[in-house]
Amino acid sequence: MEKKHKQESFESLFRRFKKGIEKSDVINEVRSRDHYVKRTTKRKLAKEDAKKIEKQRQEDQNTKRTPV
After folding, report:
1. What are the residue ranges spanned by the domains of the chain?
2. 12 CB contacts (<8 Å, ≥6 apart)?
3. pTM (two decimals)
4. Which of 12, 23, 47, 51 is 20 to 30 A from 68 via CA?
5. Do 21 and 6 meet the contact criterion of CB atoms below 8 Å apart?
6. Which residues contact 4 (CB under 8 A, 6 or more apart)?
7. Is the pLDDT of residue 7 over 70?
8. pLDDT of 43 over the 90 cut
9. DSSP letters along the chain, please?
């Protein structure tokens, strides 16, 4: 919880609060807990993410290796 500083307006307090929420990633945590996701679905999504990251990594390596 953010405490108000002396002579601080509501707008600046609210701005600081929003920034803190974004940094702590609370919104994404709440959204992820909004609906139950089965273990198999989590594993499937994790596999897809891993494939995507690996594909990007390999593409980056290939672009670095090709002579200009």
Report:
1. 10-65
2. none
3. 0.50
4. 51
5. no
6. 13
7. yes
8. yes
9. -PPPPTT--HHHHHHHHHHHHHHHTHHHHHHHTSS---HHHHHHHHHHHHHHHHHHHHHHHHHHHS--
